[in-house]
Amino acid sequence: MERKDIIRAVMEKEYQISPEAVELIYSSNSPEDLLKYILSTVNDSVIVIGVEDIDIEGFAAFSAGESPSDKINALVPEERKILSGVSILSSRSGNPSSESDSFLVPDPLSEPVLSSEPDVITAAPDPSIKPSQDSVPDSSVQDMVLDKAYESAPDTPDASNTPDTPNIPDTLDVQSGNVLSDEDSASNLASDSLSSAKAASPTFSSHSSLAVNRSASSFFGQGNSLSSFPSNRSFRTEPSSSASERGIFSGSRDEYKHYPGRNPVTVVSDITGHSTCVGEYMQFVQYFRDRYSRLSEIIRGRINARPIESLKRRSFRRGGDGGSEEISIIGMVSDISSTTNGHKILSLEDPTGSFSVLIRNSDKELFELASKIILDEVIGVTGSITNDGSLMLATKLIQPDVPNNVQRRTGSHGKAVLISDVHVGSSQFMEDSWLDFLDFLKGESDSEDMRELAASVRYLVVAGDIVDGIGIYPDQEMELDILDVYEQYRKAAEYFREIPEHIRVIISPGNHDAVRQAEPQPALPESIQAYFPENFVFVGNPAFLELDGVRLLIYHGRSIDDLVATVPGVSYQEPAGAVLEMLKCRHLAPTYGSRVSISPEKKDYFIIDPVPDIIHTGHVHTLGVQRYKNVLLVNSGTWQGQTEFQKRVNLVPVPARVPIVDLEDFDVKILAFD
Questions:
Q1: Residues 92 and 222 sit within 8 Å (Cβ to Cβ)
Q2: Omega prior to 610 cis, within 30 of 0
Q3: What does the pLDDT look like over 471-509, one tens digit per residue?
Q4: What pLDDT does residue 192 have?
Q5: ∠261-265-266 over CA atoms, to 5°?
């Protein structure tokens, strides 16, 4: 047994393991038996298996009386598979309805390491994650459960006696060249267009909606077999006390980071110190399963959805109005294509399979909504199924979105100043404007009104790019006044030390800062934090905070680039519109593998759940403020003038504009310091 086999077996059991523990197991006389013994006896509360969790004496005593293989053989079949290195995601060989694997599954251990830090596996994961010890149900039992779920539905007539479903209004000619003259050939599109696997590789290549094809295994592992769908292990959701507190922000409040004082801060969610990603294939699978599980849970409260696998097993009766029975599914968008007649086809996946959905351009409202759907978004679809059961004609699309009855939190007082993209070190850094801003915070403005406003400021929140960094874009060094990144941070710290102590400063990183480029990003390293005052709060990107009870979600906003490129009507001039699309998706970076490099952590830190009071973004150097269903969306501007690089990409910044939010009524004032 090699070291990589030990890591793989532990990950498939949904634990992590320290390098020291790997070495201890590898160097033992019987590493395979020792590993099986550890996995069968490890305490339920353990998340990262360390040396202290390995009971060598107990293993020796156990081996003397009963062989470890006897204990392993007593486990249920699925547990034996996990311990022997067989993935819980593999297809059932005995299920005639399962699709055969027509693709090559990449070797999990051949993937390049995503993280630049080889020892990140030793970092303690989020304590809210508790490994499940539930065994995967036997596939035959799951078949019975699936059938039971629909046995209350009226018996459907034999498909041969069912009148034909009306044909699609126009001939569908997909841009790939497949001519579709009737409903049956349209249905073939559903299977033909899903022919290649989405590479589980940390090489993040760009893709377009017409050029990318992803197979039925692209998100959820090989085969998307039904056997993994009901598994508590595969679909573990975080415990929560209420619907509004579920997801990554749930769990005991004792696990949060608290910064007490006159202006208290609670860090509810942050990747800092919890990254376990090493770029393994299974981690990509876990990441997408977590994303699907939690977003589909939100949608499932609004529609009664079926697993996609069930669509391939049953025919559907015609409704009372002569049309086909309407059903609903929830899936992750794996492909978007258009026909020559202007219709749109979405390929959806859930952990049980994949299905194609047609949105007709004759339904103007639905088609407009579908035009804003992007790759990897989780949506619900309601519609009717064609006679051969391979294509859905959509009548309704459901996004996770924010509920209409979301309540605004009240009771806090004072102001929060939201800024981003300071870019200290750049030759275009607007130092004079910045010094005027510092004078305002210190209460040294000429205006009495400004001094009174400054006295009410309790928080200053910085959403990334404190400094300009080094080597971020071509020829950047030609536009720098400070060529050393550490000197840039020292200079930034000098500026920030002038901020009065009664203002709590919170700093999150961006793509110009000295942290890993893959998101979610941890907080700035302690060596850099040491330059700044001790009462500053450093968090990762993104981070979910409570400012004296007000919920604030900070995200630097790099995914705005993706949304501008793919969603009609979204532009850099109105960045709050991009944040609005994130909120409708309930995800800060929906498309995976485009401009934003995303680290596949055990859980998806980009899901927006619960709904915050304020979402604060930056990155694009333009100012935007918008309200949506009692959520305030603020994209702060910059303190950097237009660079040569920005001129080449036609980006016109809005510098030295400062949004100030009243924490009691969320009223926003924009101050100008230019």
A1: no
A2: yes
A3: 888 888 999 999 999 999 999 999 999 999 999 999 999
A4: 36
A5: 125
CA atoms within 13 A on the CB side of 217: 23
What is the second-level CATH architecture of the domain 302-313+324-398?
Beta Barrel (2.40)
Q: Does an H or E element contain 344, and which?
A: strand 344-350
Residue of 139, 157, 159 lying closest to 147 (CA atoms): 139
Closest CA to 367 of 334, 400, 345, 389: 345
Which residues in the chain land under pLDDT 70?
14, 44-47, 65-255, 313-324, 408-411
Q: Which regions of 608-656 does DSSP assign to beta strands (E)?
A: 614-617, 624-628, 631-635
CA-to-CA distance for 166 and 171, rounded, in angstroms?
Answer: 13
Beta strand spans in 516-577 (E): 537-538, 543-547, 550-554
Question: Regarding beta strands 668-672 and 657-662, do their DSSP bridges make them parallel or antiparallel, or are they unpaired?
Answer: antiparallel
Say what percent of the chain tops pLDDT 70. Answer: 69
Q: How many CB atoms lie within 10 A of CB 404?
A: 7
pLDDT for the residue numbered 218: 58
Q: How far apart are the C-alpha atoms of 407 and 402, rounded to whole Å?
A: 11
pLDDT at 315: 60
Q: How far is it, in rounded angstroms, from Cα 274 to Cα 120?
A: 9
461: which strand partners? 418, 506
Q: How many CA atoms lie within 13 A of 30 on its CB side?
A: 12
How much is the pLDDT for 674? 83
* Domain 415-672 classification at class level: alpha beta
Q: Which of 641, 658, 659, 639 is nearest to 433 (CA)?
A: 639
> Closest Cα partner for 647 from 473, 436, 388, 400?
473
As given in the structure block, the two tokens for residue 69 are: 């293989």
Q: What are phi and psi of 613, to 5 degrees?
A: -80, -35
Sequence-distant (6+) residues with CB within 8 A of 49 are: 10, 15, 16, 17, 18, 21, 38, 42
Q: Please, are residues 270 and 256 in contact by the beta-carbon 8 Å criterion?
A: no
Share in percent of the chain as helix, strand, coil (round to 5)? 30, 20, 50
Residue position matching structure tokens 């593999």: 90
Distances (CA, A) of 107 to 22, 32, 209, 279, 280: 20, 21, 27, 12, 9
pLDDT in tens, 131-146: 333 333 333 333 333 3
**Rounded CA gap, 615 and 609, in Å?**
12
Question: Count of CB atoms within 10 A of residue 208's CB?
Answer: 11
